[in-house]
Design goal:
16 strands; 15 helices; 3 domains; Aminopeptidase; seven-stranded mixed beta sheet; single chain; alpha+beta; 439 residues; elongated; nine-stranded mixed beta sheet
């Protein structure tokens, strides 16, 4: 599935920063005397980011606050010309043997002028060396390729990204196992649809059927508050244990909630089984009346076929009613969480993060309704891109996550890798050697 350029511009472009969407063609820089490299306060960095059209959720003050709550040290740097910030970056320091590792998550806010970026990295290198940093790693997350649902490559972009980092002194770094597994992502461009109905009709038939089913059941979508995050963790932990993936502790979710505020949502799908049972009862009564009316009419092939359909539906309802009564007796007259998911909200994209569903409620199709509701939220808030994030690489046998996301008819995209710059080459080599000894 080919996407038009509207997607690229909506998601990856920033006004005045063409490097983010095409081969970089940098100017020689401003050369102004009052241009300088300096450390920013978190408030200065936040004010700069707030003016941008495209924001990476990991290059924000909120992410810095989150990292600080996890025991890391966030630092903000920029190249300024007077009051104007030309290039900026958020790094976090992590303690390692013999010193610190400096990491940049997401895409720094580079300048159109290459010399500004050189000044940023040169100044950063000097500061980090004084702070005992061994190595700087940028976990770049730029789109380098796009694929159709059958893994046919349809777009190649940012092909000169490695050359750009090489010119700044970086080398391509190694990906860890987690990064290798999730170098591929899934996304959908929302800006090409004029109405939400058009957007929803672009989903697969399976998605539309499951969304309609979940709505018919009476499932409601609600956000959790800070004091309810333990309930969110329970859902994620159950899914993690069942599907064998690592989960976060409660403190992480609480820290993310505090740091991101309105820019993070912990969304749940809930169902009251007493109400659900009553809905099935009413549906059964309506069907019985329709069957009685049909039986009073002349007998012909058309009516007989319709009666058989009604009888099959009634048998299915009877089975569901039995299950509903049992669930109502077990859980009582209250809303029960079926599934949950975490989302980050940026001006240019909604990001689908952690999610889980209680396995005993799989038949209710709750995750489909969560996605449909969040896509509606994105569309109504004029957010152009819906980022489903990670899917397994094509050589992996487990493609269940990809298959679920493909129900919403987007595209697969491949992100760029890591770029590394030794700050203290000797100590960095010693650290790498030590790691090989201890495994």
């Amino acid at each position: 599935m080919m996407e038009n350029n509207k997607h690229s511009n909506a998601f990856f472009s920033v006004k005045g920063h063409p490097f983010l969407t095409r081969t970089p063609k940098f100017s020689k820089g401003t050369g102004l005397e009052n241009q300088q490299f300096l450390e920013l306060s978190s408030a200065e960095f936040s004010a700069f980011v707030a003016k941008r059209d495209a924001i990476h959720f990991q290059q924000t003050k909120a992410f810095g606050d989150l990292q600080q709550s996890l025991g890391r040290v966030p630092l903000y740097f920029a190249v300024k010309n007077g009051a104007d910030i030309l290039a900026a970056i958020l790094i976090t320091l992590v303690k390692v043997r013999f010193g610190y590792l400096a990491e940049v998550h997401g895409n720094p806010y580079f300048s159109q002028a290459f010399s500004d970026n050189e000044e940023l990295i040169t100044g950063l290198t000097a500061v980090l060396k004084k702070r005992g940093v061994l190595k700087l790693v940028i976990h770049s997350n730029k789109k380098v390729a796009q694929y159709a649902d059958d893994w046919e490559k349809t777009v190649a972009c940012n092909q000169d990204l490695s050359d750009f980092y090489t010119q700044l002194g970086f080398a391509e770094g190694q990906l860890n196992a987690f990064e290798k597994d999730f170098r591929y992502n899934y996304g959908k461009n929302l800006s090409e649809f004029e109405t939400f109905d058009q957007l929803q009709q672009s989903f697969s038939e399976n998605a539309l059927r499951n969304i309609k089913k979940a709505q018919k059941f009476g499932i409601v979508i609600e956000e959790l508050g800070y004091d309810e995050l333990a309930e969110f963790k329970k859902v994620i932990d159950e899914a993690g244990e069942r599907r064998n993936f690592a989960t976060r502790d409660l403190a992480y979710y609480q820290s993310a909630f505090k740091a991101y505020g309105e820019q993070v949502k912990f969304v749940t799908a809930k169902l009251n089984f007493v109400n659900y049972s009553a809905t099935i009862e009413k549906e059964s009564e309506t069907l019985l009346k329709a069957m009685a009316k049909l039986q009073s009419q002349p007998e012909n092939d058309k009516n007989l076929n319709k009666l058989k359909q009604f009888q099959a539906q009634f048998a299915s309802l009877a089975k569901r009613k039995k299950e509903a009564v049992a669930l109502a007796q077990e859980y009582g007259d209250k809303d029960v969480i079926l599934a949950a998911a975490q989302f980050f909200i940026m001006p240019n994209e909604v990001l689908y993060m952690f999610s889980g569903m209680y396995s005993q409620f799989a038949q209710f199709s709750a995750p489909f309704l969560i996605q449909a509701n969040m896509m509606r939220y994105a569309f109504e808030h004029k957010i152009d891109f819906y980022n489903f994030l990670g899917v397994n690489a094509p050589d992996k046998s487990d493609q269940g996550v990809l298959k679920f996301k493909q129900n919403f008819k987007g595209f697969i995209w491949q992100s760029s890798g890591n770029y590394e710059l030794p700050i203290n080459p000797l100590l960095n080599k010693m650290t790498e050697f030590f790691k090989t000894l201890v495994g």
